[in-house]
Write a structure and sequence with these properties.
It catalyses: L-histidyl-[protein] + phosphoenolpyruvate = N(pros)-phospho-L-histidyl-[protein] + pyruvate. By secondary structure, this protein is of the alpha/beta class. The chain is 42% helix and 11% strand. The chain is built from 13 helices and eight strands. α2 links the parallel β2 and β3. α2 packs across α4, α7 packs across α9 and α12 runs antiparallel to α13. Bound molecules: phosphoenolpyruvate and magnesium ion (MG). The site of phosphoenolpyruvate has 10 residues, from β2 and α8.
Length: 315
Amino acid sequence: ERAARADAPIRPGALADGAALPLLANLGSADAVDDAVRLGAEGVGLFRTEFLFLDAEEAPSIEAQQEQYTRVLAAFPGRKVVVRVLDAGADKPLAFLATDDEPNPALGLRGIRSLRAGEHVLRDQLTALARADAATDAQLEVMAPMVATVEETRYFTGLARELGIRVAGIMVETPSAALIADRVLAVADFASIGTNDLAQYTMAADRLLGSVAALQDPWHPAVLRLIGEVGAAGRNLGKPVGICGEAAADPLLAVVLVGLGATSLSMSPHALADVRAALARYGTVDAVRMAGAALAAEGAVEARAAAEAAGAPSV
Ligand code: PEP
Ligand code: MG
Protein backbone atom coordinates (compact mmCIF):
# COMPACT_ATOMS: atom_id res chain seq x y z
CA GLU A 1 0.00 0.00 0.00
CA ARG A 2 1.16 3.48 -0.93
CA ALA A 3 1.11 5.08 2.51
CA ALA A 4 3.09 2.16 3.92
CA ARG A 5 5.95 2.56 1.48
CA ALA A 6 8.47 4.27 3.72
CA ASP A 7 11.09 3.84 0.99
CA ALA A 8 9.05 6.02 -1.35
CA PRO A 9 7.26 8.76 0.58
CA ILE A 10 5.08 11.31 -1.18
CA ARG A 11 7.00 14.57 -1.53
CA PRO A 12 4.47 17.41 -1.75
CA GLY A 13 5.15 20.49 -3.82
CA ALA A 14 4.95 23.88 -2.14
CA LEU A 15 6.06 27.46 -2.70
CA ALA A 16 8.47 29.21 -0.33
CA ASP A 17 5.52 30.80 1.51
CA GLY A 18 4.01 27.37 2.20
CA ALA A 19 1.28 27.49 -0.48
CA ALA A 20 0.66 23.90 -1.61
CA LEU A 21 1.19 23.13 -5.28
CA PRO A 22 0.51 19.42 -5.94
CA LEU A 23 3.09 17.78 -8.19
CA LEU A 24 1.63 14.91 -10.20
CA ALA A 25 2.97 12.39 -12.70
CA ASN A 26 2.33 11.92 -16.42
CA LEU A 27 2.08 8.20 -17.26
CA GLY A 28 1.86 6.30 -20.54
CA SER A 29 1.47 2.83 -19.07
CA ALA A 30 0.49 1.05 -15.88
CA ASP A 31 4.14 -0.03 -15.48
CA ALA A 32 5.19 3.59 -15.19
CA VAL A 33 3.49 3.93 -11.79
CA ASP A 34 6.61 2.53 -10.13
CA ASP A 35 8.70 5.50 -11.24
CA ALA A 36 5.98 7.91 -10.20
CA VAL A 37 5.76 6.40 -6.71
CA ARG A 38 9.53 6.16 -6.31
CA LEU A 39 10.03 9.81 -7.26
CA GLY A 40 7.43 11.09 -4.79
CA ALA A 41 4.52 12.03 -7.07
CA GLU A 42 1.41 13.16 -5.18
CA GLY A 43 -0.81 11.41 -7.69
CA VAL A 44 -1.29 11.18 -11.44
CA GLY A 45 -2.16 14.27 -13.46
CA LEU A 46 -2.26 12.64 -16.89
CA PHE A 47 -2.61 8.97 -17.72
CA ARG A 48 -2.34 8.79 -21.53
CA THR A 49 -4.51 5.73 -22.13
CA GLU A 50 -4.03 5.56 -25.90
CA PHE A 51 -0.51 4.18 -25.38
CA LEU A 52 -2.06 1.02 -23.93
CA PHE A 53 -3.73 0.30 -27.25
CA LEU A 54 -1.42 1.62 -29.99
CA ASP A 55 -0.95 -1.90 -31.40
CA ALA A 56 -4.53 -3.12 -30.90
CA GLU A 57 -6.47 -3.96 -34.05
CA GLU A 58 -9.79 -3.99 -32.21
CA ALA A 59 -11.16 -1.87 -29.41
CA PRO A 60 -10.04 -3.32 -26.06
CA SER A 61 -12.67 -5.01 -23.92
CA ILE A 62 -14.05 -3.38 -20.79
CA GLU A 63 -12.37 -6.10 -18.70
CA ALA A 64 -8.93 -5.63 -20.27
CA GLN A 65 -9.14 -1.89 -19.70
CA GLN A 66 -10.43 -2.26 -16.16
CA GLU A 67 -7.36 -4.32 -15.26
CA GLN A 68 -4.94 -1.63 -16.47
CA TYR A 69 -6.82 1.23 -14.81
CA THR A 70 -7.09 -0.66 -11.54
CA ARG A 71 -3.31 -1.09 -11.44
CA VAL A 72 -2.76 2.64 -11.72
CA LEU A 73 -5.50 3.62 -9.27
CA ALA A 74 -4.35 1.03 -6.71
CA ALA A 75 -0.89 2.62 -6.60
CA PHE A 76 -2.34 5.90 -5.28
CA PRO A 77 -4.87 5.25 -2.50
CA GLY A 78 -6.53 8.44 -1.34
CA ARG A 79 -4.77 10.38 -4.10
CA LYS A 80 -5.88 12.13 -7.26
CA VAL A 81 -5.52 10.12 -10.49
CA VAL A 82 -6.52 11.94 -13.68
CA VAL A 83 -7.15 9.64 -16.62
CA ARG A 84 -7.48 10.97 -20.15
CA VAL A 85 -9.86 9.11 -22.42
CA LEU A 86 -8.38 7.98 -25.73
CA ASP A 87 -6.67 10.73 -27.69
CA ALA A 88 -6.72 9.01 -31.08
CA GLY A 89 -5.77 10.64 -34.35
CA ALA A 90 -2.97 12.88 -35.61
CA ASP A 91 0.26 11.94 -33.76
CA LYS A 92 -1.47 9.02 -31.95
CA PRO A 93 -3.33 6.87 -34.51
CA LEU A 94 -5.43 3.92 -33.29
CA ALA A 95 -6.56 1.23 -35.73
CA PHE A 96 -9.98 0.84 -34.13
CA LEU A 97 -10.75 4.56 -34.24
CA ALA A 98 -9.35 5.00 -37.72
CA THR A 99 -10.24 7.96 -39.84
CA ASP A 100 -10.10 8.32 -43.58
CA ASP A 101 -7.07 10.02 -45.03
CA GLU A 102 -7.07 13.56 -43.79
CA PRO A 103 -5.05 16.33 -45.42
CA ASN A 104 -4.31 17.89 -42.00
CA PRO A 105 -4.62 15.20 -39.30
CA ALA A 106 -3.82 17.61 -36.45
CA LEU A 107 -6.91 19.58 -37.51
CA GLY A 108 -9.00 16.50 -38.18
CA LEU A 109 -11.03 13.93 -36.32
CA ARG A 110 -8.91 13.52 -33.20
CA GLY A 111 -9.44 13.40 -29.45
CA ILE A 112 -13.03 13.93 -28.37
CA ARG A 113 -14.05 14.30 -32.03
CA SER A 114 -12.99 10.75 -32.93
CA LEU A 115 -14.45 9.31 -29.70
CA ARG A 116 -17.74 10.90 -30.56
CA ALA A 117 -17.69 9.31 -33.98
CA GLY A 118 -17.08 5.93 -32.27
CA GLU A 119 -19.12 6.53 -29.13
CA HIS A 120 -19.26 2.85 -28.14
CA VAL A 121 -15.49 2.99 -27.55
CA LEU A 122 -15.91 6.00 -25.26
CA ARG A 123 -18.80 4.35 -23.39
CA ASP A 124 -16.73 1.19 -22.82
CA GLN A 125 -13.77 3.18 -21.59
CA LEU A 126 -15.84 5.25 -19.15
CA THR A 127 -17.53 2.08 -17.90
CA ALA A 128 -14.14 0.39 -17.33
CA LEU A 129 -12.91 3.48 -15.49
CA ALA A 130 -15.99 3.65 -13.25
CA ARG A 131 -15.55 -0.02 -12.35
CA ALA A 132 -11.84 0.44 -11.57
CA ASP A 133 -12.77 3.44 -9.44
CA ALA A 134 -15.31 1.41 -7.47
CA ALA A 135 -12.68 -1.28 -6.83
CA THR A 136 -10.00 1.11 -5.49
CA ASP A 137 -9.58 4.08 -3.12
CA ALA A 138 -7.97 6.64 -5.41
CA GLN A 139 -9.78 9.84 -6.33
CA LEU A 140 -10.44 9.24 -10.01
CA GLU A 141 -10.94 12.17 -12.33
CA VAL A 142 -11.50 11.71 -16.06
CA MET A 143 -10.85 14.24 -18.81
CA ALA A 144 -11.35 14.56 -22.55
CA PRO A 145 -8.66 15.70 -25.01
CA MET A 146 -8.95 18.26 -27.83
CA VAL A 147 -12.12 19.93 -26.63
CA ALA A 148 -12.91 23.12 -28.56
CA THR A 149 -16.48 24.04 -27.58
CA VAL A 150 -18.89 24.27 -24.65
CA GLU A 151 -21.13 21.80 -26.44
CA GLU A 152 -18.34 19.20 -26.53
CA THR A 153 -17.66 19.87 -22.86
CA ARG A 154 -21.33 19.28 -22.04
CA TYR A 155 -21.39 16.13 -24.18
CA PHE A 156 -18.35 14.61 -22.46
CA THR A 157 -19.11 15.54 -18.86
CA GLY A 158 -22.74 14.46 -19.30
CA LEU A 159 -21.82 11.04 -20.67
CA ALA A 160 -19.09 10.55 -18.05
CA ARG A 161 -21.49 11.29 -15.20
CA GLU A 162 -24.17 9.07 -16.75
CA LEU A 163 -21.67 6.20 -16.70
CA GLY A 164 -20.64 6.69 -13.08
CA ILE A 165 -17.64 9.04 -13.25
CA ARG A 166 -17.81 11.50 -10.37
CA VAL A 167 -15.31 14.13 -11.52
CA ALA A 168 -15.25 15.01 -15.22
CA GLY A 169 -13.11 17.70 -16.80
CA ILE A 170 -11.53 18.74 -20.06
CA MET A 171 -8.09 19.36 -21.45
CA VAL A 172 -7.50 22.87 -22.68
CA GLU A 173 -5.28 22.41 -25.71
CA THR A 174 -7.06 24.46 -28.34
CA PRO A 175 -7.01 28.27 -28.34
CA SER A 176 -10.81 28.21 -28.53
CA ALA A 177 -11.14 26.31 -25.24
CA ALA A 178 -8.72 28.76 -23.58
CA LEU A 179 -10.53 31.82 -24.94
CA ILE A 180 -13.89 30.57 -23.59
CA ALA A 181 -12.41 29.04 -20.43
CA ASP A 182 -15.03 30.78 -18.28
CA ARG A 183 -17.79 29.01 -20.20
CA VAL A 184 -16.23 25.55 -20.45
CA LEU A 185 -15.29 25.68 -16.76
CA ALA A 186 -18.87 26.56 -15.88
CA VAL A 187 -19.70 23.06 -17.22
CA ALA A 188 -16.56 21.01 -16.44
CA ASP A 189 -15.34 20.13 -12.95
CA PHE A 190 -11.76 21.07 -13.82
CA ALA A 191 -9.43 21.95 -16.65
CA SER A 192 -5.98 20.59 -17.43
CA ILE A 193 -3.90 22.54 -19.91
CA GLY A 194 -2.02 20.50 -22.50
CA THR A 195 0.73 22.93 -23.38
CA ASN A 196 2.16 20.77 -26.18
CA ASP A 197 -0.96 21.03 -28.28
CA LEU A 198 -1.90 24.48 -27.02
CA ALA A 199 1.47 25.78 -28.26
CA GLN A 200 1.06 23.88 -31.55
CA TYR A 201 -2.36 25.35 -32.26
CA THR A 202 -1.67 28.83 -30.93
CA MET A 203 1.53 29.24 -32.94
CA ALA A 204 0.17 27.25 -35.93
CA ALA A 205 3.37 25.17 -35.79
CA ASP A 206 3.21 21.39 -36.18
CA ARG A 207 4.60 19.73 -33.03
CA LEU A 208 6.10 16.93 -35.15
CA LEU A 209 7.98 19.21 -37.52
CA GLY A 210 11.56 20.10 -36.63
CA SER A 211 11.66 23.02 -39.04
CA VAL A 212 9.08 24.93 -36.95
CA ALA A 213 10.23 23.70 -33.54
CA ALA A 214 11.43 27.16 -32.52
CA LEU A 215 7.89 28.50 -32.88
CA GLN A 216 6.46 25.63 -30.85
CA ASP A 217 7.55 27.25 -27.57
CA PRO A 218 5.27 27.43 -24.51
CA TRP A 219 7.24 30.46 -23.31
CA HIS A 220 5.70 32.51 -26.11
CA PRO A 221 3.60 35.28 -24.54
CA ALA A 222 0.69 34.34 -26.84
CA VAL A 223 0.61 30.90 -25.21
CA LEU A 224 1.16 32.34 -21.73
CA ARG A 225 -1.69 34.81 -22.23
CA LEU A 226 -4.09 31.96 -23.06
CA ILE A 227 -2.91 30.00 -20.02
CA GLY A 228 -3.54 33.11 -17.92
CA GLU A 229 -7.11 33.28 -19.25
CA VAL A 230 -7.74 29.74 -18.06
CA GLY A 231 -6.11 30.42 -14.69
CA ALA A 232 -8.29 33.49 -14.16
CA ALA A 233 -11.46 31.60 -15.11
CA GLY A 234 -10.56 28.80 -12.70
CA ARG A 235 -9.98 31.26 -9.90
CA ASN A 236 -13.27 33.08 -10.55
CA LEU A 237 -15.27 29.85 -10.63
CA GLY A 238 -13.35 28.02 -7.91
CA LYS A 239 -12.36 25.21 -10.30
CA PRO A 240 -8.91 23.58 -10.44
CA VAL A 241 -6.64 24.32 -13.39
CA GLY A 242 -3.80 21.85 -13.84
CA ILE A 243 -0.98 21.83 -16.36
CA CYS A 244 -0.02 18.50 -17.95
CA GLY A 245 2.04 19.46 -21.02
CA GLU A 246 5.83 19.48 -21.18
CA ALA A 247 5.90 23.11 -20.03
CA ALA A 248 5.29 21.95 -16.45
CA ALA A 249 8.62 20.09 -16.52
CA ASP A 250 10.63 23.30 -17.12
CA PRO A 251 11.45 24.50 -13.57
CA LEU A 252 11.41 28.24 -14.28
CA LEU A 253 8.32 27.99 -16.47
CA ALA A 254 6.62 25.93 -13.75
CA VAL A 255 6.90 28.92 -11.41
CA VAL A 256 5.47 31.22 -14.10
CA LEU A 257 2.57 28.80 -14.69
CA VAL A 258 1.73 28.96 -10.99
CA GLY A 259 1.81 32.75 -11.26
CA LEU A 260 -0.68 32.46 -14.14
CA GLY A 261 -3.08 30.51 -11.93
CA ALA A 262 -2.16 26.82 -12.26
CA THR A 263 -3.27 24.88 -9.17
CA SER A 264 -1.30 21.67 -9.91
CA LEU A 265 1.50 20.59 -12.24
CA SER A 266 1.86 17.19 -13.88
CA MET A 267 5.02 15.99 -15.61
CA SER A 268 7.28 13.10 -16.43
CA PRO A 269 8.26 11.65 -13.02
CA HIS A 270 11.93 12.36 -13.73
CA ALA A 271 11.23 16.10 -13.82
CA LEU A 272 9.57 16.18 -10.37
CA ALA A 273 12.69 16.82 -8.27
CA ASP A 274 13.88 19.87 -10.21
CA VAL A 275 10.41 21.42 -10.36
CA ARG A 276 9.88 20.77 -6.64
CA ALA A 277 13.17 22.55 -5.89
CA ALA A 278 12.32 25.51 -8.14
CA LEU A 279 8.90 26.08 -6.55
CA ALA A 280 10.44 26.07 -3.08
CA ARG A 281 12.63 29.03 -4.05
CA TYR A 282 9.75 31.44 -4.76
CA GLY A 283 6.68 32.73 -2.95
CA THR A 284 3.25 33.30 -4.51
CA VAL A 285 3.97 37.02 -4.89
CA ASP A 286 7.21 36.22 -6.74
CA ALA A 287 5.44 33.79 -9.06
CA VAL A 288 2.81 36.39 -9.96
CA ARG A 289 5.50 39.01 -10.60
CA MET A 290 7.50 36.60 -12.78
CA ALA A 291 4.37 35.70 -14.75
CA GLY A 292 3.63 39.38 -15.31
CA ALA A 293 7.15 39.98 -16.60
CA ALA A 294 6.94 37.02 -18.99
CA LEU A 295 3.53 38.12 -20.29
CA ALA A 296 4.85 41.59 -21.05
CA ALA A 297 7.83 40.31 -23.05
CA GLU A 298 8.10 40.41 -26.83
CA GLY A 299 8.76 36.76 -27.57
CA ALA A 300 9.60 33.40 -26.04
CA VAL A 301 13.31 34.07 -25.50
CA GLU A 302 12.62 37.45 -23.93
CA ALA A 303 9.87 35.98 -21.74
CA ARG A 304 12.24 33.48 -20.17
CA ALA A 305 14.86 36.17 -19.56
CA ALA A 306 12.25 38.52 -18.08
CA ALA A 307 10.90 35.84 -15.73
CA GLU A 308 14.41 35.03 -14.58
CA ALA A 309 15.23 38.69 -13.93
CA ALA A 310 11.93 39.23 -12.10
CA GLY A 311 12.67 36.25 -9.90
CA ALA A 312 16.16 37.32 -8.93
CA PRO A 313 16.47 38.57 -5.34
CA SER A 314 16.61 42.37 -5.24
CA VAL A 315 19.69 43.98 -3.67
C1 PEP B 1 -0.44 18.17 -24.52
O1 PEP B 1 -0.91 18.30 -25.65
O2 PEP B 1 0.24 19.05 -23.94
C2 PEP B 1 -0.66 16.93 -23.76
C3 PEP B 1 -0.37 16.85 -22.48
O3 PEP B 1 -1.16 15.86 -24.44
P1 PEP B 1 -0.30 15.03 -25.52
O4 PEP B 1 1.12 15.51 -25.43
O5 PEP B 1 -0.47 13.61 -25.15
O6 PEP B 1 -0.97 15.40 -26.79
MG1 MG C 1 -2.37 16.94 -26.38
